[in-house]
Fold this sequence. Notes:
It contains one helix and twelve strands, in the order αββββββββββββ. The protein has one helix spanning 26-40; strands spanning 45-55, 60-71, 74-79, 82-86, 90-95, 100-105, 126-134, 142-149, 156-164, 170-177, 182-192, 212-215. Residues 1-22 form the signal peptide.
Amino acid sequence: MRKLFFPLVVLISMIGSTSAQSTKDSKVETVLNGMSERYKSFKSFEADFTYAIESTQEKIKDSQEGNIIVKGEKFRLRIGDQEVFNNMNTVWTYLKGENEVTITDYDPDSGDITPAEVYNMYKKGFKYTFADEAGEADTRLYDVVDLVPEDRNLNYFKVRLVIDKKTKDLKSWKVFEKNGRRFLYTIVKFTPNVAVKDSDFTFDKTKYPKVKIVDLR
Length: 217
């Protein structure tokens, strides 16, 4: 599973399709900064979410439910029959159906979107603009922002964030891949400052009897 957030946690050359805003509009930046500061104020958080993937070209349409716990840049993600643990040194990806865990080194420069980065990824390597405003200017409920990556070699060309205008909560984000796939994450329940231990972000093989270990470090 790509570390998205989730595959996570981005971008494009579609700015020309929106209104004539600056590629780093100060109004958009104010919205993004407000969202970022809100999540930075939490010591940890837990979120239940829905995850949907769709591709008309490949005739793919599927959805699943998931859960994530985040502390700083560490996270534990559960979605479908998959669990991902990241303690900022090592990443464990466990597949329940195969009872197999793959271990890799954490690479902060991989370019992947991680759950811990989705709230801050706009700060480096992205252009951004308003994609839409749900409702009239003074009554809309959400700000819709498109993030466009400056690196054209990434496998996605855009990430669309939907941010609650009042609370600054991130309600959903959608990743647009060049191959036509679309990944949509929608927050269903959000709990800030949950009790969590650092060990929660490390795979404990004693809890997975007879697990097959594939160590790629």
